[in-house]
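job 3f2a | input accepted
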Amino acid sequence: MKKLIIVLSIVLLLVGCSAKGGAYQDSDYVNYSPSDPGYAVSESEMKDNGVSGGYYVNSEESFAKEEKLVYTGSITMETKDYDNFSTELNGVINKFMGIVEQMREQTNSYGNYNRTLSLTLRIPAADFNNFIEELRNGSGSVIDVNTRVDNITKAYNNNEIEIEALETQHTRLLELLSEASSLEDIIKLEERISQIEIRLTQLKQYKNEMDTDVAYSTITLYVNEVKEYTETSYWQRLMNAFGNSWIRFVDNVGYFLIDVVYAIPTVLVIIAAFFILRKPAGKLLGKLKKPEKNEKRIIDDNKNDDEKSM
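job 3f2a | predicted structure (310 res):
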């Protein structure tokens, strides 16, 4: 019985040791390649520059951080009253402390609408859905909404890890530089410090961009001025087609009259040129026809002479 207990104890001890070894294998060591966004300095590279030791990252701690979500959306709207809607839209943007990054307004001469508006907006991420809902409840007609959420937590955490590692290495290299006496060592250290500072600048700029994208969602808004709203029902679309057919007919007649007015100067010039050049052109044609008549007479005379000789 005692032997059995001893054997069981040894087996349990061996199982526990193997489980402990597996836990160490699951730990994540940060060692990215320089081409990766989350590039970190490897242990061998740190030793080559006079800095000892690598660094480890606890994966549980990295995932415990707040998730970084980027919201983007695209909205297409229609309005019958473009001017009032523009004023209303500006009020909604100001209400949610939005920023207009880009705006384009265009007036069209043809088509079913006259003016179009294209906006690229930055809206606080916390009000992303509220802003869209406010537009739905407004005077315009929302005909298409497309939203997307990207989780950039992993890229953000990797970026922060690399910044911290490079800052630690930068501090250590500055200490070594102050103690270096060999010109060759000084040159190597200064070169490596310069590389780290350039990389840190890039990483911090990338971090600022990610912070902005997380804090402010991006919404692209398209607004079309229409005479009738787009309907999803077949019968509603058919009724709108009958109503809009007369509107388009009147518009096309108007466009035709405008084209006629634009063409009047050209027509007048052509008519004037016709009356001015008519007589000279007639005389020139007459001269060209006379040689043909003379040639015909000579041919006829030769023919008659031939007949007489026979």
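job 3f2a | Residues 36-230 form a domain with the Alpha-Beta Plaits fold (CATH 3.30.70.260).
job 3f2a | closed
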